[in-house]
Amino acid sequence: MNREVTETGTREVLAARGLVKQYGAFTAVDGVDLTVHAGEIFGLLGPNGAGKTTTVNMCTGLLRPTAGTVRIDGLDVEREGRAAKRLIGYVPDEPYLYEKLTAREFVHFMGELYGVRSRLDERVEELLNYFGLLDAADNLIGGFSHGMKQKTGLCGMLVHDPLLLVLDEPTVGLDPKSARLLKNTLLTLAARGRAVVLCTHILEIAEAICDRVGILDGGRVVAEGTVEGLRQAARGGSAESLEEVFLRLTGGDEEGLVVEALISS
Amino acid sequence: MNAVAHDAGTVLRLRARILSRLLLPRFTPEAQRVAPYRLLAMLVVGGTLLSLFGITLGHFLSVAFNGQSLRPFLLPALVWSPTAAAVGIFFYAVLSLSATFTYRNDLSLLMLTPISPRIVLADKLFAVSASFSVLMLVVALPDLVGAGRALHAGMGFTIAALVVVLAVPLPAASLAMLLSILVLRWLPPAKARAGTAVIGTIVAAVLSTVAQTFGDVTMRLLWGNVDVVPAVWPGHALVAAADGQIGPSVLYLLSFVVLSLGLAALAIDRAAYLLASGWAVYGEVGRRSSRGAVRMAAPRRTEARARRPEWWPVVRKEWLTLRRDPKLLAQLAYPLLIEGYTFYHAFGNPFTAHPITGRLARFFAASLYLSSSMTALFLLSVLALPIVGREGRSLYLLGLAPVRAGYLLLAKVLFCLAPVVALLEVLLITMAARLLGMSVLQTVYVSAVLVALVTALGCWLVCVGLIWPRLTSDGSRRQVHGTALMVGPISGGILCTVIGFLLAGSFADHSASSLAPYASGAGIFVLTGGIVALVFRIGPRIFHNLLTDDRRPV
């Protein structure tokens, strides 16, 4: 959160082209193109099994795509992995951390792993303080609640001041105060020129803070644009909320029939 | 009664389905069709191999003790071996059942269903007990068959041995279930498991030490005088069967089985009641540790950090994790304690004893090599084999990091090698130099061989664990696949044997012009160096693939 990034809005921080991931005969992600600019919060929405996590795993270098390329600030994740990874921070939906480290040790460890040389101690203290973890900083992560682990994971992923922050369902398990803090943090990061990719099911959050959203269904991007633009596009602008747009695009508007069938059976 | 039968049927069908999955590498129709034949083939081949082992052991004992009566040696061992097995099973069963009650989440799911909690817990108890019975069938039954053949016992002995290996785990597991329930009220699961592992190690070390110091005397004094203690009834049943006294043997076995079933019923009943009432649940939220914060490593200076290599943070993380894992520390301490005491007991204090010479020196050197290489293999099997799998679901953190896979591998290898090399060099080479009166050059040579062996072993075992990790482990179970548990130690044992022969060859008496000792010495370093080079050639690619492919759980 220290470096200011200029060229906000024009600099392509994440550029994924033709991403495909196949597991045997099953295609989890089928030709996804994504572009996220500096200073932008991009919401990746989609029903369960749509391919969101697979897509972000490929974007962060955690999963090798069957086809397609990912560039982070112009660096190819496959070929220039080390340099590209220095620019990424990723917090998955289940924060699996090292349970036998304390929160402070974990954030230190992540800082050292990412090669943070200067002011690491101060930066760790700042982040722990910012996320309200200072009192628990010397407790083992194994004893933390889900929300505390989530916040510790965030500290670990922000310690190297990434240009691209990817979060998968970041508000799950967070109390309202922490969720508000997280939303403000993401807005601050975007204001300072960082790019944020947010995978979420909670459409209110996407509606509130995302500059653009992409809707994935069946491994394909079925819609992409600003929330307002999607509303306009869906049935000639008759849709009132992102939820309605989402349900129409992903076939979820048939849920009424399903509920009726369940009740009558 | 119908409800009980229905519940039991449901649980048994579930258990059968889970077990059938173990036989099916892939859930294809072809795999399902082949599964019964696969099981039959495994049983036939496994049974034949184990029978052959038992027969060979019996033959070996008969030949080795030719002309002497085996009875004074074997009968006390027969009485006490089921008891010793039960003690070991008890501690492992506490670990397994603690996990069943806490980490593995199917218990709470099953307890929510209308199935009787007693049936659910009976299933859990018998599953744990049966897993130990299978282990006993493979490990203990061939030994007992061999002992029976050496004692010229009849078929009755084999049947008694079969009943013993099947029945002994049940009371141990029942007691473990009762203890787990009590302990889990007062301790969080992780501490309960760590505490059990540490106590188990201490008990094993004490029993081993007592057995070495007073073993024969104690066993011979006690074996005929403690038959009121149920724990030795299986042993007495074996002895009676070996003597051809079928009546007393059946009586001992029947009494033991009835008592075991009673204990199992009591454990199931109390566990069901205490779990359902909420008594046996540790209140983690309301009981924050009063000890408070963990002592943190001293703050480091930025300039020092700037000089550190890329792999350093991973080594430091491994060290912080190891020093807070009492279970792992206990596993590492056990062989060292036993090793140290065995040598002290056998040869006395190395700093005050006179150097050993002649044939005894050769025997001592051979046993020193054997024990030090086996200790290294054991320590590295505990430390190096699961070091990648121990990352578990946190492996993605290393996958995200801008660190080359080669450096990650190097960090893992260095962390495993450093303590093992240091311990073995200090403990064993000192003893060798003192007791064998080796020259400085010889001591340096043997030290170098040991370092080369440990390095090759460590690299190889890390690589095996890298090829077959078990990343979905929740920390309560093994962190590598069964294949790694077979391939790692067996290939490690072969390497130790080959190096042992080469080492012996390099010390062998030859004519002055012979190059054989030098060739043997060079062979050691070529072989170990080749293994290290191979691991660092293929390992980084395997590690990189693991970090970026579909095997890593996401």
Characterise the protein shown here.
- The complex is a heterodimer of chains A (265) and B (554).
- Chain A is 37% helix and 24% strand.
- Chain A has 2 domains: 12-87 and 162-264, P-loop containing nucleotide triphosphate hydrolases (Rossmann fold); 100-160.
- In chain A, strand 7, helix 6 and strand 8 form a beta-alpha-beta unit.
- The model of chain A has no long low-confidence stretch (mean pLDDT 86).
- A 6-stranded mixed sheet of chain A has the order 6-7-8-3-9-10, sandwiched between helices.
- The radius of gyration of chain A is 19 Å and the shape is globular.
- In chain A, helix 3 (103-113) packs parallel to helix 5 (146-158).
- The longest helix of chain A has 16 residues, at 176-191.
- By secondary structure, chain A is an alpha/beta fold.
- Chain A has helices at 52-59, 81-85, 103-113, 120-130, 146-158, 176-191, 203-209, 227-233, 242-250, 255-264, and strands at 12-23, 26-37, 41-45, 67-72, 75-76, 88-91, 164-168, 195-199, 212-217, 220-225.
- Chain B is an all-alpha fold and 554 residues long.
- Chain B folds into 2 domains: 2-277, no CATH class; 310-548, no CATH class.
- In chain B, 77% of the residues lie in helices and 0% in strands.
- Chain B contains 19 helices and no strands.
- In chain B, helix 2 runs parallel beside helix 5, helix 3 (71-101) packs antiparallel against helix 8 and helix 9 runs antiparallel to helix 10.
- Chain B is globular.
- The two termini of chain B are 45 Å apart.
- The chains are: A alpha/beta (265), B mainly alpha (554).
